[in-house]
Amino acid sequence: MTSKPYLVGLVGQGVGPSLTPALHMAEAREHGLDYVYRTIDLNEIGIAPARIGEVLFWARALGFDALNITHPCKQLVIPHLDDVEDDAAALGAVNTVVFGDRVMGYNTDKPGFATGFAEGLPDAATANVVLLGAGGAGAAVGHALLDLGVEHLTVVDLDVDRASALVRDLADRHPQVRVDSSSFDKLSIVLPHSDGIVHCTPTGMADHPGLPFDQALLHPALWVADIVYRPLETALLAAARAAGCRTLDGGHMAVHQATTAFELITGITPDADRMSRHFRSLAGSNPPADVTSEN
Fold it and tell me: What pTM value is reported for the model?
């Protein structure tokens, strides 16, 4: 074993069922690391999310090397950090905190989706893409899609103001690309002319079953990506495959979030293929939980 042990935590509400601790610790064993990863469920210990600064203070004092941060603390944690890397600053959300001489914040959502997309949907057409969901994960995915070369991105959300705000941010940071918003009732007009759609809402999780839109809108020329990973086989992906669509499940993003975080914490590049195999074995052997991309 290495002379340096690692102590890592996942902070958020309802994080008990997370697969992340097992995923990190299994990969660490492969590298001969003494690596302990624990969940810190704010609901269970009765700490309000607004007290995330205290959680960081005590975690650092108690010898934690890093924390993954999930809902609802990704934005709340930022004022308590010494510095934030560029992507996290642009997104206004941090999901990985590394303790050292300075307390650094990172966001692994964007690289996690980008790497997973390139892995699972190579050579997918990206001229016209729909982003369904303009929340924190949707924002990260939107930036990743534009970096991947999407030429026209349409953002759809039930909250029209939230969709419009994300469009403005994406357009400001990617002025060469066409970005606009649309309403749910316009999907029947938008999807027939789209190359793909990325689903970034809670619909399809165990506690939010069902389809996010009418499956009759799916067509064989459309690829469909879902960031929900428990269950991996969402109703949307099942319907998309039945319609002849290429699909990408949320496990790709989840694994590459974890690989990025693991490297930030340890300085060691993990074996992504091995982590993917382990993740899918865990996801298949555990009951579904109400979890999307948590890191």
Answer: 0.90
